[in-house]
Specification:
41% helix; PyrdxlP-dep_Trfase (chains A, B); DNA-binding transcription factor activity (chains A, B); alpha/beta; DNA binding (chains A, B); transcription (chains A, B); Aspartate Aminotransferase, domain 1; eight-stranded mixed sheet; Arc Repressor Mutant, subunit A; Aspartate Aminotransferase, domain 2; pyridoxal phosphate (chains A, B); homodimer
Chain lengths: 478, 478
């Protein structure tokens, strides 16, 4: 009897749907006939019932089967003849477009987390529930007055939030701006998407840090851009290397993450910042400053933004609430010359007709509330604690097998593994043991690197998570 | 003395910024020198002070000038030499990318509404404040329990909302589906954007109704698609014409809006629906059913969706809360085979990392609340009233100068003007008189057509608005 292939790249439910579709089209189950129950099929095929439910859902959405409560699942009596010739070839459509799918490692991690919510999560770049100001947000939502109108938003975003962001940027990031130069986005991801889609053209070359979070984003390739890496050491990129890159590849834009970089945690030193701005201004090159982590500095130090040192107007500044409050709010911002803001706002209108006003109201209130500063202080303290727990656990579980620099802010720890192991095998083994991380190659590094995010996992699970990871690693090098 | 050119396409503030930049770079205002005050410059140039503020903002964001409270606006003392050579050429960047700007008429209308909020608005395709359930939404927001977590959402959207939408579709639209086949989007705009970006490839041909809302969306052209119109009469498209279009142009997808179409208000008759599905299934062609208005039927009749008649799985179904509750919520949905939903969800992750959970929670509660049905009843009654007010006003103000069919649902009235007038001149004249509408050519029709939206304007302003429109029209045909 046929069984789905567990080693195939095709998901189990799709294999089952294809198999059933074939049996139906061959006449094994004629129109109107009753199919075996979900439970029975699951038994026969040796899969979870939920997998069969997904497969039935697929066939139902294609009009091949029909379910009615109490009477089971039947093959449709097609109104217009036998199905397989007539249903659009959805699979071919799903392969259309210039939009590349997400990286296989990232899809694998997402799938593993969906299948097993008990996995200890060192992969997701976000904060745990106890680090987010959930009570404060709920209170601010409840205190909201009835809106006088809930129509389409201003293309640049909700005016009171733009004002609150301008004031926040002045207080915390040394950036002087006004609401007309602020574009509210749903987060850094949307900011980067707008920049790559609207300000750059297919074939353009851009420079990013190597390693960098930006390597994990297929959006650069989807936009037809050519990506060149600027090698980074513990202090981030060496700006002088931009000159030769520009000569060779006519670089059009530089993307950097100067404060507690993702994934390395590096903090770009002041002299390199000055040099970076100097070279950019000399060459007339725009810099995109992605700045999600700067407020997490564990010592509460005020790390200046590149933008605050930018006297020439070279820097497009990107920030968000995702890593300092809650990623599920989906509130971020960009500061740019008004002509750029207008262009990006116009394009965004065409993509999604703007953002929901409700989370913007909440965010504006939160930024201006007396809760904001105490929340930041607590966040910094807790993140430092989690970093220390992670480092202690690594020292204990993997002495001499792992190397890292200790980050002074942010939510990521970047590690080099001493033994040589295969990234994909290590990830699979770790998932089996009950823990996920992101292989360094996702960020453009050679194999043998690992990003552990300590923002998301609960403090009490960090030790166990690293013990599981150590088991996985030792299983492979045994 | 130099003055900005009011007839130029370039906004006044940009002209002023360019002019000041030039004077600064020519040394008229050396580094560190004080610029004239905003008020004084506004007087000299004969513009509003707010225009000068915008121009200063532009120069400030380019690092050319600096303002400090109490000490006025100075030319920057650049750290790295004179500016003009060194600032990135932002204007050239703003022209980059494959993303086309919005249509000039639509940008003109948006600009006019921003400049003068007192304009009577027959242009915006949305509901007025009194038609939106604002009190109910505020109540549901206040009653929200504190979320247990506010992290990144499931790529397909918030599970309880997907369940609520599946139940809504079963009850109201005759569509049987499960949450695994539902993708939550920020509205029909995002649904269409995902479809055009991810399921179709540059060069593909698609068919849309002529006239159609879809003509107003540059996203089709931005995705490199070739668009072909299916001529529509009062009953919408004649499906037989699809065959010849497919033969000539290898059409890959058909976009229709069968219930109270935007802009014509047409309701596709049952026999044409059957025929449309028959032809699509015969040719294996997918149909995108855009269904924002069906629940606004003034007689409360249950207009079936195409999707409910689709036995073959040809139809991708798109709906939203924008036209039946509040466009500012930004909540919509799509029903598609799971493989398509997965592909689009993955792509959306890359564009914006998913939607905010907060409006999705509110929407899920609203759909399942006892407020929903009474709200719909009130909405239908009020929209019928507004339609009648609009029609009476047109009969009174423009007898014999205007022709239309009376819609039985939706928020738009599509009119043919009897006298020949220039679209652009009519719009400008109307803006001067204090009213906006959308010229029919935006929707692909010949000139001489007008779309009046009666959802947005207050009932008490409809008569005045049409009187102003009549004045504008008569001024041009005098």
């Amino acid at each position: 009897m046929w069984k789905p292939d567990r080693h195939s790249k095709k998901p189990l439910y799709e294999q089952i749907a294809d198999h059933l579709e074939q049996r139906i089209s061959y006449g094994e189950f004629p129109p109107g006939s009753l199919l075996p129950s979900e439970r029975k099929l699951a038994e026969q095929l040796g899969v979870n019932r939920s997998t069969v439910i997904l497969a039935f859902g697929e066939l139902r959405s294609m009009g091949i089967i029909e379910s009615r409560p109490g009477s089971g699942t039947h093959v449709s009596k097609y109104k217009w003849g036998a199905v397989p010739k007539h249903t659009p070839n959805w699979k071919r459509y799903a392969e259309g477009g210039s939009f590349l799918p997400n990286l296989p490692f990232l899809r694998r991690i997402r799938e593993a987390l969906q299948q097993n919510p008990d996995l200890i999560d060192f992969a997701s770049g976000e904060l745990s529930a106890d680090l987010s100001p959930l009570g404060e947000i709920t209170e601010l939502m409840g205190a909201q007055p009835s809106p006088s109108y809930l129509g389409y938003d201003h293309p640049q975003g909700y005016m009171p939030l733009r004002q609150a962001v301008a004031s926040y940027l002045d207080r915390y990031r040394g950036v002087q701006t006004t609401e007309s130069s602020v574009l509210i986005t749903s987060g850094s991801q949307q900011s980067l998407y707008l920049i790559t889609q609207c300000l750059l053209s297919p074939g353009d070359a851009v420079a990013i840090e190597d390693p960098s979070y930006h390597y994990s984003l297929p959006m650069f390739q989807s936009a037809g851009l050519r990506i060149f890496g600027l090698p980074a050491d513990e202090g981030g990129i060496r700006p002088e290397e931009i000159r030769s890159l520009v000569k060779k590849h006519r670089i059009k834009m530089i993307f950097v993450n100067p404060n507690f970089q993702n994934p390395t945690g590096a903090l770009l030193p002041d002299d390199r910042r000055g040099k970076l701005l100097e070279i950019a201004s000399e060459l007339g090159l725009p810099i995109v400053e992605d700045d999600p982590y700067s407020l997490t500095d564990y010592d509460g130090l005020d790390r200046p933004s590149l933008k605050s040192m930018d006297r020439v107007g070279s820097v497009l500044y990107i920030g968000s609430l995702s890593k300092i409050a809650a990623s599920g709010l989906r509130v971020g911002w960009m500061v740019a010359p008004h002509s750029i803001v207008e262009r990006l706002a116009d394009a965004r209108q065409q993509m999604d007709f703007g953002l929901s006003v409700i989370p913007q109201q909440v965010a504006a209130r939160f930024l201006e509330s007396p809760y904001f500063e105490p929340h930041l202080e607590r966040l910094r303290m807790q993140l430092r604690l989690k970093r220390d727990l992670l480092i202690d656990a690594l020292h204990q579980a993997l002495p001499k097998l792992i190397r890292f620099h200790v980050p002074q802010g942010g939510i990521h720890l970047w590690c080099q593994l001493v033994p040589e192991v295969n990234d994909a095998k290590l990830l699979e083994e770790a998932i089996k043991k009950g823990v996920v991380f992101v292989p360094g190659s996702v960020y453009g590094s050679d194999s043998g690197y690992v990003r552990f995010t300590f923002g998301r996992a609960k403090a009490e699970n960090i030790g166990t998570g690293i013990a599981k990871f150590a088991e996985a690693l030792r299983a492979l090098i045994r």
